[in-house]
């Protein structure tokens, strides 16, 4: 799926109508969760329950019928994530009642685009009406039949519309014959295997002074007053700016890396464990390594290039020349090996990351099933089995980074296939 987002120009009455639609979606979603808690209803029963709610509550009947079904599907998605474990075997927490919903989703009815596709009209009974859209993407380049979902999102007292198109994005680039290993860090955002580094932008650190001031002004206002609401909007917009800066930086940098190289290797960092260090947690969150890795995986799928995540254990301790393990503290930034190699710690780690990734890809080329061969014949022990698990588990991510923040939508694109490794690259 491809998601296009535009800003909406709305009046006060339209903002109120959108707010009412968002409240109705939250109401239906919470009612569906309550029905599941009481009766363990199936997803089909939750969809049927929408019609019951529309007959029982007149304000729910004003919302488009497919939008009501989309609200019930949000509850079904949260329930399925609780009942079924993820790829690591862990289950998410039990669904809770939503208190601050920010979006309403329509399917193929309840909305209509103008002829120039610069305005959108919502035709259900809530009275949202026609709104102007601001954006750089031209919707005229896409077929209307490809639009499967239309979502209105509220962020910091502003409204945006998202179009979910059933399109698989792919771009063809000329092979560069280059490979790169990336070692993520805090002093430098990443360092590659030849010593090139990108400084860490530290967007939160730079905006922290203004954020603290906005939060202090918010805490001083009386609860429930208009001044408190206005102060909350100001603080929200500052946080939204930092979020957009991180996304823009990660997106552009990931695209540049993928266009410049044929194979990209990086660490499979467990950020959830790393942020337990209370001295570095803020800097780790500010660096947004996971977002950068997610964009790398996405552009790897777009360009048809492999992105390999390798285990991060001992990549900075092992010598990239002789393989000897040289213990060093986090404060030691230079790798000094008895074999005579003196190198920057991050560059040494990047070389080890690239070496591991090329070894995994070389093994994958040997164990990839031939045409008509059963996957069950793959090895179960040794390096080949490790490479096979890497291929199945960490090769590609199924989540499109441009998806909305509420996390209740379906994955926007399906995983791509890994491009075959050239013999010259395997060496």
Throw out a few tags for this protein.
427 residues, alpha+beta, 7-stranded antiparallel beta sheet, 5-stranded mixed beta sheet
Question: Which secondary structure elements does this structure contain, and how are they paired or packed?
Answer:
Blueprint: E1 2-9, H1 12-39, H2 43-56, H3 58-61, H4 65-83, E2 103-106, E3 111-113, E4 119-122, E5 129-134, E6 147-155, E7 158-165, E8 179-184, E9 188-192, E10 197-199, H5 203-220, H6 226-260, E11 263-267, H7 271-274, H8 281-287, H9 289-303, E12 307-310, E13 334-336, E14 342-344, H10 345-367, H11 382-393, H12 423-426
Parallel strand pairs: 8-11, 11-12
Antiparallel strand pairs: 1-5, 1-7, 2-6, 3-4, 4-5, 6-7, 8-9, 9-10, 13-14
Helix pairs in contact: 1-2, 1-4, 2-4, 5-6, 6-9, 10-11
Structural write-up:
The chain has 427 residues and is of the alpha+beta class. The protein has two domains: 2-165, no CATH class; 179-204 and 248-426, no CATH class. It is 43% helix and 17% strand. It has helices spanning 12-39, 43-56, 58-61, 65-83, 203-220, 226-260, 271-274, 281-287, 289-303, 345-367, 382-393, 423-426, and strands at residues 2-9, 103-106, 111-113, 119-122, 129-134, 147-155, 158-165, 179-184, 188-192, 197-199, 263-267, 307-310, 334-336, 342-344. The strands form three sheets. It has a seven-stranded antiparallel β-sheet. Strands 10-9-8-11-12 form a five-stranded mixed β-sheet. A hairpin with a 2-residue loop joins β6 and β7 (158-165). α1 (12-39) packs across α2 (43-56), α5 packs antiparallel against α6 and α10 (345-367) packs across α11 (382-393). The chain starts with a strand and ends with a helix. 32% of the residues are buried. Residues 370-427 have low confidence and may be disordered.
